[in-house]
Design a protein that fits this description.
The protein is mainly α. Helices cover 82% and strands 0% of the residues.
Length: 468
């Protein structure tokens, strides 16, 4: 029997049901993501002002990115698992399960904090023993150690309140938490660097403290929602409080692996592009294309953040028709966004964007060609995240993981290689083949995942089962 079909009779949803549709819930997250993309360059910008240490400081921040990405993967995976389970429990009216999940998540957070404190210790002891330039090694040891240890003690603790806020469909609070964190980071960076002269230590410390302010806000909002839930909640008897840790990890681990697969895919594609003729221009043009596609995909990635708790709540209520409605709305929004915004902007202003970021004429020519492929790449990348989030909200992380593995290892990477090899024989630069191959592979994966979701929802729909 499908997990969607196994719904108990007599369940009563928590008060309020699923408040707001997918677009209403997504808008605050779209704003938050846009601001975070701007705030994301803050540390690098301030590092470039450290007189006499500019290059070493910027390079140290760059070398820390893989560690941050690993931390982000663990954070996102755990948050997705907890958000999905909390939303389902709230939809079922299962207050006992909500409390059990919160306790289990706290134990998981303690383990993650311990792991990344050990990582920070390893960086502190090993940064100067891996053959780096002495100045770079010192900057790396300071920045990475403070950031990893401090973030372990602040960022991971935000998983529980952040997940609770999203499970209660309060995406405005998610937006404000992001704004508070980003704005505080800018202010503290300016104070620590320009007023106190704390250098790269101050830059790392400002990032850690900014996450603390965000955590305090999230704790306050989560406590407010939990008080309302307890006051209005009508308990429903059930037997689903067993193994809450396993329930969270059931979604968290596949979600984290999917996140890491996308990072691996990006790394391999960069390595492949590095081998084409005029590699410097090709890498620069590929970077412009890749960043443009990810930036254009950001609104629909934000939709996926809202999709997870919304679908999980509807799943807990057994509302299959509601899930289909929200997925259909998100899909129509994606098509409209691509047709009315991304495509016109890419064709009208693609050469302007390429010229702004590319200095050499050869790089500009390749980047301008890449802008033509941005709508296609966005069409491939953007719907993938909401579709995967819908599966996770239905307690079915397997399809998203399977399609992610096939996408990266069977479709995108091999087809990019084929494109690079075939394009010159057709009279096009090798990089044009990379644009085409990666986009076609990603589109194939997205279509497959969408078809899989449609089939699952049809089988789970009572009207469809009755017709059979």
């Amino acid at each position: 029997m499908s997990p969607l079909e196994d719904r108990r009779s007599g369940e009563r949803p928590a008060e309020g049901g699923s408040r707001g549709g997918i677009l209403r819930l997504s808008f605050p997250i779209v704003v938050s993501f846009g601001l975070r993309s701007i705030y994301g360059i803050v540390d690098t910008a301030f590092a470039a002002t450290l007189e006499g240490q500019e290059d070493a400081s910027v390079a140290a921040i760059g070398l820390t990115i893989p560690l941050e990405f690993l931390m982000t993967a663990c954070w996102v995976g755990t948050s997705n698992g907890l958000t999905a389970q909390l939303s389902t429990a709230i939809g079922q009216g299962r207050g006992d399960r909500v409390e059990a999940l919160k306790r289990a998540a706290t134990r998981i957070v303690l383990v993650l904090v311990g792991i990344f404190l050990l990582v920070s210790g390893a960086v502190y002891l090993g940064a100067e023993r891996v053959g780096l330039d002495p100045d770079l090694a010192r900057q790396l040891r300071t920045y990475a150690t403070v950031l990893m240890a401090g973030s372990a003690l602040t960022a991971f603790w935000s998983i529980v309140p952040d997940s609770l806020v999203k499970a209660h469909h309060d995406t405005k609070s998610t937006m404000w938490a992001g704004i508070i964190s980003g704005a505080t980071n800018v202010v503290l960076n300016a104070i620590f660097v320009f007023v106190f002269g704390m250098g790269i230590f101050g830059i790392a410390l400002s990032t850690v403290l900014s996450r603390l302010f965000s955590l305090l806000y999230a704790l306050r909002r989560a406590a407010y929602h939990e008080r309302r839930r307890r006051a209005s909640h009508t308990a429903v008897e059930g037997d689903e409080c067993d193994r809450p840790t396993r329930a969270i990890l059931f979604i968290a681990i596949p979600s984290s692996i999917t996140f890491l697969l996308l990072a691996l895919e990006s790394t391999v594609l960069n390595w492949m592009v590095k081998e084409v003729p005029d590699s410097t221009a090709a890498l620069a043009a590929w970077s412009i294309f890749d960043r443009a596609a990810k930036f254009c995909s950001m609104p629909l990635i934000a939709v996926s953040v809202a999709m997870l708790p919304l679908v999980a709540r509807l799943h807990g209520q057994g509302d299959i028709a509601g899930i289909r409605r929200q997925v259909r709305t998100a899909s129509l929004f994606a098509l409209g966004y691509l047709a009315l915004i991304v495509t016109p902007l890419a064709f009208l202003f693609g050469d302007t964007v390429a010229g702004f970021f590319a200095a050499a004429e050869s790089t500009r020519a390749l980047a301008t060609a890449g802008m033509v492929w941005v709508p296609v790449a966005t069409l491939a990348l953007a719907p993938f995240f909401p579709l995967r989030a819908a599966f996770e909200g239905m307690q079915m992380p397997g399809p998203g993981l399977v399609v992610s593995v096939v996408r990266s290892l069977v479709l995108v990477v091999p087809l990019t290689w084929v494109g690079i090899e075939v394009a010159p024989s057709l009279g096009y630069p090798a990089l044009h083949g990379a644009f085409a191959g990666s986009s076609v592979g990603a589109i194939a994966a997205t279509i497959w995942l969408g078809h899989w979701l449609r089939s699952v929802l049809r089988r789970a729909d009572p009207a469809h089962r009755d017709a059979r």
